[in-house]
Design brief:
With about 240 residues, the protein is mainly α. Helices cover about 75% and strands about 0% of the residues. The mean pLDDT is about 80.
Length: about 240
């Protein structure tokens, strides 16, 4: 029975992950093209995608590398952009924190915006969902997403500047985040946090890369928590 539940959860995860492939492919191709144009060879480009596996941080690092920034600044800024993964990890602890270390390590590697968003949205309505089923669902979401990230990066790197500008691959990044965030805005706290993050991200746009995003994210979390506390007291 447990095996059947895991298979069902894995299939559900795959189905949840499939829609994201529509933006993962152009997003990965765009990175491959940009990395090639920035002077990275095929091995460096693929290693970048396989080791970092975080599009926003990869584009940020490439931008700084193109400007001749020091290595320490490139690494620090990429880490700053990716600090949201620490928030994702904290949010997943109640669901996956009891898993064996090697499984948590796999989740950590496969945790990107899409896998986190889809898995969390599936976990929250199901208080009694078994740990094995939650893991199976998470890995199911990653199954169509992660391999396509590698393949599309490879395609972009091989095609390089041969990709027509008319394809407008850069649409993939904002579209990805809109697709992830839209279904998650279900409560007043979610809406409040989103509003604060939008306003402060724009207000802090002039700060060094990554800093404004972090400040906006922290303020948004505080706003969401404050709204939830107010609602609980009002109830």
């Amino acid at each position: 029975m447990a095996g059947s539940t895991q298979k069902s959860a894995f299939r559900e995860g795959v189905l949840l992950g499939l829609p994201f492939t529509l933006v993962i492919v152009p997003f990965g191709m765009l990175f491959g093209v940009v990395a090639t144009e920035a002077g990275l060879d095929l091995w460096a480009t693929m290693g970048f995608s396989a080791l970092v596996i975080a599009g926003a941080a990869q584009f940020t690092a490439l931008s700084l590398m193109g400007e001749g920034a020091q290595t320490w600044l490139v690494v620090l800024t990429a880490l700053a952009v990716n600090l949201r993964m620490a928030m994702y990890s904290a949010a997943l602890v109640p669901h996956l924190g009891q898993a064996p270390l090697w499984k948590r390590a796999c989740v950590s590697y496969l945790m990107v915006d899409q896998t986190y968003a889809a898995a969390t949205a599936a976990y929250e309505p199901r208080d009694g969902m078994p740990l094995d089923a939650k893991l199976a669902l998470f890995f199911g979401v990653a199954t169509p997403i992660v391999p396509l990230w590698y393949v599309s990066t490879l395609a972009g790197a091989l095609l390089g500047s041969g990709v027509p500008e008319a394809w407008a691959l850069d649409f993939a990044l904002p579209l990805t985040f809109i697709a992830m965030l839209g279904p998650m805005l279900r409560t007043l706290a979610h809406l409040g946090a989103a509003f604060v993050s939008i306003v402060l991200s724009l207000a802090f746009a002039g700060l060094p890369a990554g800093v404004g995003l972090l400040l906006a994210a922290m303020a948004a979390m505080a706003a969401g928590a404050a709204i939830e506390t107010w609602q609980e007291r009002a109830a």
